[in-house]
Design brief:
11 helices; D-Maltodextrin-Binding Protein, domain 2; nine-stranded mixed sheet; 2 domains
Length: about 325
Amino acid sequence: MTSFLKRLPSVLGALLVTCTVQAQTFPSKPVVLMVPYPVGGVSDFIARTLSSTLAKHLGQPVVVENLGGASGGIAAQKVLNSPSDGYIILQGSPNELILAPLANASIKYRSEDFRLVQMITVNPLVMLARKDFPASNGDELMAYAKRGAAAGKPLTYASVGPGSFYHLLGEHMSKLTAVPMVHVPYKGGAPAVQDLLAGQVDIFMTPYGKGQVQLVEEGKLKAPAVLSATRQQLFSKVPTLDESNALKGFVFDIWAGYFVHKNTPEAVVQVLHKALGEVANDAVVRGQLEAQAMIVPTPRPLAELSKLYADNTAQMRAIAQSMNLQPQ
């Protein structure tokens, strides 16, 4: 022990030098931004909007890679299976990192295996529906769902996979109203919207952008309600579910952020945190994201981000437990 104590200053000094070198040399090659859904969805739009600006601040190319499946779990696991050196960043949310492990038995990671480096957006949610859906607000929605369930034709709702946030929203709605509904999972938002357009599924509660707004404005889809506390600017004529009697208090949104393996060196995390904060403050990036109805929050310190992530983990696990969500 005495020998170790004598060597401790030199060990600490070596660690300090290593961290300093890592901070000075990272990144020295392209960085991969992993998107856990296919091309064409809201998550993909976020990544491609900021990738070039992030590359400018990191001084290296940023490559966007799309890998859908297992409610985002396949992409998240790939990040964990890669070296924890900061060269692969997951664009994730509570959906992929907290809920997916609770619902999918094949997913072996836990939310604590990841570290939140920075938030990028808070995304309001809309309920999209097939164009001929016979409801224009929450009360009409639930009246239709009750009639369908009684006739043996329950309402169908899409999600981006079993155990996803959007799956839980549907299950939560069904439980609150005691109306049976049928879950239809997809690998991402884009294929879910395609089936909405084809009339193969009734509704899809999802983040949205101008693309979805345009589909509604053109009459190709319908928007019976938004899930925010107040009406949304891009859907100003669409009521909130909270305005209805049947779904009073049904208010939700979802946020997205950037995650790395928890064992990523602190010096590398600091570099990524600084660069992603600069991206979030970039006027062009903010303008493009906000034009798509997204809220870009003020960059937060790492300690505050850790607390936010831990708090969200506890909240989501409590909802899953209340619904008796079991891994399948």
